[in-house]
Amino acid sequence: MSEYFSNIKTSATTIATGMAITLRHFFNAVNRKGDAGIDDADYFKQVDGLCTLQYPREVIPTPVNARYRLYNNIDDCIGCNQCDRACPVECITIETIKVTADDLAVCGKTSGGQQKRMWVPVFDIDVAKCMTCGICVSVCPTECLVHTPVADFSEFDLSNMLYHYGNLSKIEAEAKRKKLELEKAAKEKAAAEAAASGAAPAPKPAPKPAPKPAGNEAGE
Ligand code: SF4
Ligand code: SF4
User: Fold this and answer.
1) What pLDDT, in 10s, does the model give residues 171-214?
2) How far is the CA of 70 from the centre of ligand 2 (A)?
3) Same domain, yes or no, for 55 and 80?
4) C-beta of residue 166 within 8 angstroms of C-beta of residue 93
5) On the chain, which terminus has fewer CB atoms closer than 10 Å, C or N?
6) Quick one: 133 and 46 in the same domain?
7) Are residues 82 and 126 in the same domain?
């Protein structure tokens, strides 16, 4: 019988102790709420207080060097494919079309002054697959591919996780492909006509004789 009451006493003491701890943290959290804001660098170093954020009403600012959602400034993209080749999970898809000679000015230059020689009708990033490793960003020669501070980009529809950055519509891309084919055909025709008319390639200049070393002239 004494053991029975002893167990009841232990249970009551345990519950009271637990409730005391819970209430202490509860009132401590209420008291501390607002003292250390989420902008405080030591927010998560607080021993006491409310550390749980009321997300999405409250969010922690992302660090400046964070690697989150990718963004491609397509105006600076030269369609070199280096990011696509470097991506370990193959979540970048690129299609390019060579720019015809008369379109170079229309295609323009990058902000760094580099002439763009490729249209990029398709530049898709599947951010659902992207593991934000940053390899693609590090190999991009024009620094147009960057990580943004956007950390929350969840979607209900998975297809919305495929981001499109291409700089031509399908109709425009088709027109550019046809234009390139016409340019190629015109070049081939001109080359064939030149060959038929017997135009020989310009003769190579005769190699100059190597100058004699000074020692030979002196009879050494
Ligand atoms: S961050 Fe990594 S996984 Fe994501 S696209 Fe770039 S290379 Fe691929
Ligand atoms: S590496 Fe940079 S410039 Fe080259 S295709 Fe990718 S995003 Fe464009």
Assistant:
1) 999 999 999 999 999 999 999 999 988 755 555 565 666 555 54
2) 12
3) no
4) no
5) N
6) no
7) yes
- Is the whole-model pTM more than 0.90? no
Q: What is the DSSP string of 126-179?
A: ETTT-----HHHHH-TT--EEE-S------SSGGGGEEE--SS-HHHHHHHHHH
- Residue 52 maps to a domain: yes
In Å, the largest CA–CA distance within the chain is 128
pLDDT of residue 99: 97
100-145 per-position pLDDT tens digit? 999 999 999 999 999 999 999 999 999 999 999 999 999 999 999 9
Give the number of the ligand closest to the Cα of residue 142: 2
- Spatial separation of the C-alpha atoms in residues 97 and 166, rounded to whole Å: 12
Of 87, 90, 127, 138, the residue with max ligand 1 atoms within 8 A of its CB, to mutate for a pocket test, comes to: 87
Do 38 and 129 lie in one domain? The reply is no
Looking up residue 143, the CATH number of its domain turns out to be: 3.30.70.3270
Residue 101 belongs to domain spanning: 70-171
**Do residues 91 and 145 both lie within one domain?**
yes
Does residue 34 surpass a pLDDT of 70?
A: no
Does residue 118 line the site of ligand 2, with CB under 6 A? no
4 domain residue, yes or no: no
pLDDT of residue 217: 40
Total tally of structural domains belonging to the chain? 2
Residue that has been written with the tokens 């990029």 in this structure? 120
134 in contact with ligand 1, CB cutoff 6 A: yes
Q: How far apart are CA 136 and CA 36, in angstroms?
A: 37
